[in-house]
Design a protein that fits this description.
heterodimer; A: 2 strands; 73% helix; globular; B: mainly alpha; two-stranded antiparallel ribbon; 67% helix
């Protein structure tokens, strides 16, 4: 029972990270129709900025996360105007290649600035013990961040004018334009929102993993597994699927074999696409 | 496949009186005969034939010069460049002609490498028998395993790309458990003597055969079907193209050619290691090479792969920090996607035919996120 509960705790941490990544991917796909391969690398950049803030500037890790946000907003704006807008009328091959290119550029930049050697921030060791189950403080913080950001995102999309514009753009861009919505602006805001989520994801990577320049890129496959399960563009589905994948990975790691966990996302993609070609929840948005 | 209206012009250049009209009416502007289009030999036949033969002569000269002048270093470089040409040419059959984006060709490259490596190591036959058998086995294994992606043909747009990616990653992660040799892979029995030029000529000959095969596919009924599927899946189905069969056949051929590339890798290297032959970059690189050269054209992948090999070599001589070369690759990809969506051949075509409208590759209808 303890092992089971402990695995549940591990799975929660993985799920929180997957939520941050896959919501960003799903949002950008829904609003821009673009599969963003560079999303994971945004997180890598955030995590490394946080690493410098924590180790060199001696800031707290939460302060570091606040610092990551403006960096990623600048990056996201550059990505939008430098890559997304110029390729918006190109074929999806061109767009795939453009976002792949961005992913490579970011990996190269990280390697040049921080070297390819694995680094990590000092771990906080505080934990809560409940009946033999260890819950690290950092996990509680991660869950709190996830809850706050998801609530904020939900309020933003459902209650604000910009949020409504984003949803309308996702449903039908042409119709939204005919209704007088500035869809370009809605798309930019969607990219910036996903950058804020990436900053939070960067915080989670920084506080739980050993950093290397391709860590975000290797996570992007898990995000694809999530969005395939959820139906590309479905945000609610992405949250549910992230939790399923997070717990699934943790339980397979504990009870089956930890060396096959890397293959779990891919087996899930195969299984889902064989059984339900349009994803588990079909195509819906927000 | 019944004689569908869309494929009536399949006879191509041999009937010039109907071909241009059929092309203009049945195909959107961007699909008009170009290099590697159905009319390989185009409107201004003389000009096009001249540039084509100039390219062929230059390539042939380069091919002969490499082993004569270059020495072992350049010969090894040329072999790996030619293997890339084969891989890119194979990818182009389904990804370029058929417009089905595969991000999983590393799987077929790797399986081909395993099949050929295992064959020459386990079965002792004279070289003249073993080589063709190994390569045929690699083709068969790769083509058969492409059934794994068939479920993806029922899905739309990005799902297919993601599925192929998942197939390749599964082989990378699980190959060490069920493929011969386990984690360390297969130590391939050397089939060529040291310092021989034979492997180079073999790889060169097979490269030419692969390019010729892809040209034949493009001009065949299957090629017309693939191009119809690429332009508009629903329209192709409505004029009688058996879209599923066309895509399955196109993918199998594509995978078989990628398997040949893997087989040649195995035969010219001493080791087939799961992490090397299923390396995800082997899935990504052909996409880039083909786009660099010109998607859906016969010579595009050749041009793209050769340029890439030269660039790779130059970069590795300039800096040993792979960070900088990664930035250069990434930057090139972005520039390419933004400014040259039709690849280098698209650029050539634009300037070679001043009257032609500069065109862009349009978003395909089956990938449109908002129908």
């Amino acid at each position: 029972m303890t092992v089971f509960l402990q695995t549940l705790v591990t799975g929660t941490g993985i799920a929180a990270l997957y939520v941050m990544l896959s919501i960003g991917v799903a949002l950008i796909f829904g609003v821009l129709g673009l599969v963003n391969f560079a999303q994971g690398d945004f997180m890598t950049v955030a995590a490394y900025v946080g690493f410098t803030a924590v180790t060199s500037w001696k800031l707290g890790s939460l302060t570091a996360m606040v610092l990551m946000i403006p960096v990623l907003l600048v990056l996201g704006t550059a990505f939008f105007y430098g890559v997304v807008v110029p390729t918006r009328r190109h074929s999806s091959e061109s767009q795939f290649i453009a976002t792949f290119g961005v992913a490579f550029i970011l990996q190269g930049l990280v390697q040049v600035v921080w070297t390819a050697n694995p680094v990590s921030v000092p771990r906080s060791v505080g934990a809560v013990q409940i009946g033999g189950v260890t819950i690290p403080h950092i996990l509680l913080i991660q869950v709190a961040i996830t809850a706050v950001l998801l609530s904020a995102l939900w309020l933003f999309l459902s209650r604000t004018k910009s949020g409504r514009a984003i949803r309308a753009t996702a449903v039908d861009q042409t119709a939204a334009e005919l209704m007088g919505i500035n869809t370009r602006r809605a798309q930019l805001i969607a990219v910036l929102v996903s950058c804020v989520l990436s900053a939070a994801g960067g915080y989670m990577i920084m506080t739980t993993y050993v950093l290397n320049p391709t860590i975000g890129f290797s996570l992007i496959f898990s995000a694809f597994a999530v969005v395939v399960m959820a139906g590309l563009g479905s945000l609610g589905g992405a949250v549910v699927a992230s939790v399923v994948l997070g717990f699934g990975t943790a339980f397979i790691g504990t009870y089956v074999n930890s060396s096959v966990t890397d293959a779990v996302p891919f087996l899930i993609i195969l299984a889902v696409l064989v059984l339900r070609p349009a994803g588990l929840r079909g195509k819906s948005f927000a | 496949m019944a004689a569908a209206p869309g494929s009536a012009s399949g006879v191509g250049a041999s009937t010039p009186d109907i071909a241009p009209r059929a092309a203009a009416s049945a195909q959107p502007a961007h699909e008009q005969p170009g290099w590697g289009g159905r009319g390989w030999f185009p409107r201004s036949q003389a000009a096009r034939a001249t540039s084509l033969s100039a390219a062929v002569v230059l390539l042939a000269l380069g091919a002969v010069a490499v082993p004569v002048l270059g020495g072992p270093y350049y010969e090894a470089l040329a072999i790996s460049a030619l293997i890339l040409v084969i891989l890119a040419t194979g990818w182009n059959v389904i990804g370029g002609y058929g417009g089905q984006l595969s991000f999983g060709h590393a799987a077929f490259y790797g399986l081909g490498a395993y099949a050929a490596g295992w064959f020459v190591t386990e079965v002792s036959l004279p070289l003249a028998v073993a080589l063709p058998c190994a390569i045929l086995l690699a083709m068969a294994v790769a083509a058969l395993s492409s059934v794994l992606v068939i479920p993806g043909f029922r899905s739309r747009g990005p799902y297919f790309a993601i599925l192929t990616l998942a197939v390749a990653e599964s082989f990378l992660l699980l190959g060490q458990y069920f493929l011969p040799g386990g984690q360390s892979g297969i130590f391939v029995t050397p089939v060529f003597g040291r310092g021989e030029n034979l492997p180079y000529w073999l790889v060169l000959g097979i490269t030419l055969a692969a390019v010729a095969a892809s040209a034949l596919v493009l001009r065949s009924r299957l090629g017309s079907g693939l191009r119809a599927v690429r332009s508009d899946l629903a329209a192709a189905a409505s004029v009688g193209v058996p879209t599923l069969r066309v895509r399955v056949a196109g993918f199998a051929i594509s995978a078989a050619i990628a398997g040949v590339a893997g087989a040649l890798y195995a035969l010219t290297q001493a080791l087939v290691n799961p992490t090397t032959v299923f390396d995800p970059s082997l899935s990504v690189v052909p996409v880039l090479l083909v786009t660099l050269g010109g998607t859906g054209t016969v010579l595009g992948p050749v041009l793209g792969a050769l340029l890439w090999a030269v660039l790779n070599d130059a970069l590795s001589n300039i800096t040993t920090n792979t960070g900088y070369s990664t930035i250069v690759y990434g930057g090139l990809l972005v520039l390419l996607a933004v400014f040259l969506p039709n690849g280098l051949l698209g650029l050539v075509r634009k300037y070679a035919r001043p009257g032609a409208k500069p065109h862009r590759v349009p978003a395909r209808s089956d990938v449109e996120p908002r129908p």
